[in-house]
Amino acid sequence: MKKRFIIYIGLWANIILSACVKGDGNYDYRDASEVTPGDVSGIETFYSVNSLYNLHITPEISGITNDEDYEYYWVVWGTGFNQTNWKDTIGYEKTLDYVVTLTSGTYELAFQAKNKQTGVSVYFITDLSVASLYSEGWFVTKSENGTTDLDLVKKDGMLYSNILRSVNGEGLPGEALKSFYQSGYYVHQQENPDGTVTTLNGQKVIYVLSDRDMRVYNAENMHLFKKFEDAFFEVPAKAPQDAFLGMSGQFLINNGKIHWIGLSGSIGKFGYPMLGDYEAAPFNMGSMNQGMLIFDKKSSSFKGVPYGNTELVTLTSDFGQQDCNNMNCDLIFMDEQTAYFGVTKGGIALLKHKEKKEYYGAMLNMNWSSGKNPFVNFVTVPEGHEVVKGKLFATNCTNDVLYFSDGGNTVGMYNVSNGIEKKAILTYPAGENVGYIRHISYTTYNAGDQSLDCLAVLTNSTAGWKVYLYHFIGKTADIETPHYQSFSGKGTGKNVLFRGLNAYGIN
Hints:
Number of domains: 4
Shape: globular
Number of helices: 2
């Protein structure tokens, strides 16, 4: 929280006021206290409001005898990762009476009183936090009766079920795949009743994918922005498999082909698929600022997908242990290790040889972004290890560890670098089967916000889905038991994400 402060300068020119006041053609040297307004009161040092709330503030300024001698301005500007270089004037009266239409996040609110004759001003700057029902909480992507929807659990434990259907009258057809949150930069164009088009810039959105559809929703109110057929310049056959948010755009793997939206100059539509004879596996290692690494099933090779390219990049083979091209392997799993604003530090892959009964674990780095082999380490998984039976996997963000489950009621962990496996580090009641695992880690950039570093495990049973949250033991990949929090809902859960008020993206 900021301490209030008053500055006697021109807000826009930033010229320091001296004790002299300029008249027409001469200088009248007078004491500043005679011409400068006094202290500002009646404004709090921090405001926390919900979207569409009416913000009413009446300041008082000592030393002012006639309000008509002054011009008043209320200015708001964004703070944090995605709100820089932006400001807006929201009031021209001494009393602010403003219906908050800002998107959720943190802002600074400034009040200025300017003498019309002298140009001397007094300011007060305060912090403003804006939230909506959907701006903070745990989102669970789930299926129920052949329809995909989202459940939301707030930090106080309140559950809001089927929010897509509640807001829009319907969810997505098909079984749930995943959802991900984009905290700004999305551009949406909407047609007005009179036929004109309004462009909405800098929108916060949630992508939701099922095995039969993909839709984009306004993350502030969950209103539908785009259906699958609205999200492409040229609509392909529906077969969504995976999607990823990057620093400069969003990627989609659909029917084995890769589509991309750039954040700069886009209108929220995916372009044509990347060129080439390839079939992308439904996994990726994303880099927030470089693009992503994918595995081509046709050539059994890792390929680079830089931002802005029209075709995949073939990587070099200069690595002593293992070539990343023509590997004669199937990719079982791949994902990045991310933390702190979603910055990628590396990744982990698990592969199976097509002919031999061998499995391999690989540690990956960012060399692929410059066209080099991504392997840091490539090892054979020891015989008898249960990680090869895994159907669900998750990377640890700071250690060379995979968490895995065969879809039953246990979770194990496997260290790719040293080969050590720990079986059944977590066990759930019979009939409660693991459906999703994720190390969720990010650090907020505003004091007082909730930073996260936990392992989330989602289970499914006849009663519905349930999410367990676990702390780590220090900086290791080992889990503190029992869980420190859990929550549950109806349906079959598939994916879990936490949306924080000031998070760029959540891994």
